[in-house]
């Protein structure tokens, strides 16, 4: 539930920074750095552990670790509590403690790195990929950029267009999933189709293998249209842009 998980540093980088910190504190220190695949990690299974360092807000988590250890037939750990450092510069909507979530929030709107120059891409229009889950604000941002003059490509609308009778993917989808996905008027019932593919990775891949290449082709056509209109910036709004 971390705020802005997309701005959390990669595991390898965090490990490198932790190792640098430990070596700076005490070069002779022996330690293991392990990834945590669950809330407890090795704390509830390692018989060699003796102490767990907790903060005032994670003390209850330490107590939960000891309960798990007792269930596993292991001795309790000594809980050593440290006090949290306060952030004198925190804003009203930020946590009072020094917090990585607050630090990441402050990065919003900051250019993390300059756009890479790719000589194989045309200079115009400059294409911006806008992605994120449902309710993340893509549509609002796209409208704002549209008001500023950007050419907007809505991948969801293109997705609807390819399903209509005569659309580029209509015949393939009907052939793959059967006439039972059709309404009486011959249009594809997206709810029936959705029930067939969601929860079934093989069926979902069959659908995306048909649909996504067609959407990509239509996106390229739209980018060409933006160029023909003399637009300097083109924004592609797509929930599964990276996929």
TrEMBL record:
GO terms for biological process: coenzyme A biosynthetic process. It comes from the Eukaryota. The keyword Nucleotide-binding applies. Transmembrane segments: none annotated. This is COASY synthase. One of its GO terms (molecular function) is dephospho-CoA kinase activity. The keyword Protein biosynthesis does not apply. Keywords: ATP-binding, Nucleotide-binding.
